[in-house]
Model the fold of this input.
Amino acid sequence: MANSEYEYVKREFEFDRRLPASNWIVVRIDGCHFHRFSKIHAFEKPNDENALRLMNACATSMLEKFPDIVFAYGVSDEYSFVFREETEFYQRRESKILSLCVSYFTSLYGMKWKDFFPNKDLREPPYFDGRVVCYPNMKTIHDYLAWRQVDCHINNHYNTCFWMLVKSGKTEKEAQQTLKGTFSKDKNELLSQQFQVNYEDEPAMFRKGSSVYRDKVETKVKTDDYGNPIKRIRLAITVSNLDIIGPEFWEKHQYILQEGK
Amino acid sequence: MANSEYEYVKREFEFDRRLPASNWIVVRIDGCHFHRFSKIHAFEKPNDENALRLMNACATSMLEKFPDIVFAYGVSDEYSFVFREETEFYQRRESKILSLCVSYFTSLYGMKWKDFFPNKDLREPPYFDGRVVCYPNMKTIHDYLAWRQVDCHINNHYNTCFWMLVKSGKTEKEAQQTLKGTFSKDKNELLSQQFQVNYEDEPAMFRKGSSVYRDKVETKVKTDDYGNPIKRIRLAITVSNLDIIGPEFWEKHQYILQEGK
Amino acid sequence: MANSEYEYVKREFEFDRRLPASNWIVVRIDGCHFHRFSKIHAFEKPNDENALRLMNACATSMLEKFPDIVFAYGVSDEYSFVFREETEFYQRRESKILSLCVSYFTSLYGMKWKDFFPNKDLREPPYFDGRVVCYPNMKTIHDYLAWRQVDCHINNHYNTCFWMLVKSGKTEKEAQQTLKGTFSKDKNELLSQQFQVNYEDEPAMFRKGSSVYRDKVETKVKTDDYGNPIKRIRLAITVSNLDIIGPEFWEKHQYILQEGK
Amino acid sequence: MANSEYEYVKREFEFDRRLPASNWIVVRIDGCHFHRFSKIHAFEKPNDENALRLMNACATSMLEKFPDIVFAYGVSDEYSFVFREETEFYQRRESKILSLCVSYFTSLYGMKWKDFFPNKDLREPPYFDGRVVCYPNMKTIHDYLAWRQVDCHINNHYNTCFWMLVKSGKTEKEAQQTLKGTFSKDKNELLSQQFQVNYEDEPAMFRKGSSVYRDKVETKVKTDDYGNPIKRIRLAITVSNLDIIGPEFWEKHQYILQEGK
Done:
């Protein structure tokens, strides 16, 4: 039973699309039906700290597993992974990269669930969709990340107000009505006047999302003969909640997007 | 902080590729580094019945979740899912379909693990890659499935011999050497003469792989006034290990690929 | 001066997209800025018979040059070329097929111009854009051609009325106003009552567009010993102006889309 | 006769692929069967000056017609057109850009033929194929152009020797044999010793190919009251045969690839 008579189905119909060289490759994954998923698992609103920490832990494991991911940025049930410009990961084949990333992340999410929700069983399979996008230069990859962080701010600002209103007794419809057409300034006033909340005091993880990258960290590697610590700069995968829209972060971490150059 | 200045990164760089209409869409997923994964988890060789049943259970849940999957065929750590020709699932967007399927399958695999390996903990995250292929007509989709089943046979025939030899004391290298250049007939003789094994008596799940589909099943739906059962034909998701290369299976199950016509 | 240091620009950035097998390949070309081109060259309105015959002559030469084109359909400054389902023309590479067809057609148009417009010089370069579309089965390729012929009818019906009105003294704006919201029946009435024209008597080339294909033609190949002609069926490239929406044409010419089966 | 029932053939099967933003778009066209075409039209070997000038004239007209083409480079029967990085020409739709360019170039070639070959009729339609490639940054677009010019050198060096040998009485096979395995140095020696030709004295158009771009040219725009010429810098489309591999050309013409920045 030779297979040759059927192998044309592979040869003539399967195509491996390769992503163009010299482009940053972004894989963005996004929770599927997480509105429902977060209800079933009673996530806190507007932000469930444990759920976010779980996402961050999965992203950290992604960077440990795939060295060509140089940066990741996450907010809510979404995470973007940036592969270095010249990566040859799976010869830049789009389907491989997309499917691997989304599958490995999903698997991590399931396995780490108990670490963050020790008292809750997974009642439905969490799953994610994903897409791959190429950015040809520093400006566009910066702007991509800025786009996600601006989105994080806009959504979180709104949601913070919305859930304050709901928790204070309004219906969801009334809360929506109250916020309709408000500007950033109006939302800040509402928070401070009605709820004595300064938005800037909200946790940075909620306001800024989370960035995962290899940070230069001074580590004690051994002790010299006199008992003095000998330190070295090592790269350590780090999660931070900093602003990545302005130039400061990128000026301080130029090596992140310049690895291998 | 308006997002509009960054939104060009979506508009100008993200493209939604849609798959052409009137084509069967196949998503084939495949275990990543499952050689290693199966060693770490001590899978039986050449076939671990529990591991295969776990794959089948996940595939069954895929058909429950996604009604547009009309057929699935699995062998080893691989599964192919066939969406009906005219599906409008996520408007036939390739990235959505690929990522969703591979993610949901991965999630199921993790969640169902304990049902099939109650005494083994998952020690590493199982993950899968995937690809999407379009087939334009009945002949090519049949040939695609035949291709996978022929592959199943060729691999299983070889592996059955290989592991018999190894379990009988040969090194892996010696076993490989013994089998080099052998034809189907030679392998059958080796099995029967050296190991008193008739290959055709091996479990069908090992030899034929597993097909998952909605079968017409007569079910008792209620009892009439005289206590006689009233039966109806219902569609029930079924796993079978039949030949899908020849025409018989498809003649008996014409409705599978003709749904909605 | 070895080229190897630069050859990466080909290897890493050039991709040959192949069209999926078992699909009819359609190349549709369309005149660029032919509104202007037809004005400059004083084409008759609404149809310039010589311009259409020139298009048909080019299409005929296309079928002579490329045997894998089995059918062509043209209307106005547009022509569709249908390659047979299993063609291996340039290994089904999309860019090759598209660029070759549009370039060869353009070249023919320039070279044959004088045959159809002996007294007019080409004052500007005629040029065309094009696209490639795949159709997976008989139904969709039929429907594609029907779509083009319905479009031909709708446009020609309108244009016939429009130019009758303009030639009778109305401004273009008034003509447009008169036709706004009219149905097919209204247009026929307008033509018969105001201009004593029966639309069905208009030339078939205007109403139906032109089909080019290899027709079975009985040809005298030699004479027998008694002076009687010996005839054979030969395939001869033919231009006709028939209905290709209904089944009659295709029933009589089944071999056109079944070559090689 | 409404068209709606057939319009699905467009909606479900036609896809407009857009090229990613912030990439230089290169359209490279290449003569089809020009070996034959040049024989039929008795082109001089290894270089026909008129044929090259015709190609350059067509390229010049391309830059006149399409302002978003910022640079073109041609050699033999091949021409590359570089669109500026941010061009929105036809919304960056690949099929439009490819087909338009190759068609317009073909049309020009036919129309300008008589200007360069007044005594030769076109005996067969000249036609070209083409492809589109995207380059994401300055380095890769420079390297692309260098790749083509190195190719020009390698081919012309070989062909110069080959045709000298053939014209001196060798058969084509013998000439081929003589050149097999020779390095650049060997070819220079062969030319100088056997034919008293210094390769560097060959026309630059043959050795370097042709570049077409908008050059800054000082032009007399009017005369002042005292009869002195008033000059302005104007951009004028220019053909040159310079080295574009090294940095000099690009340093002197930085504005070419930086238009609009």
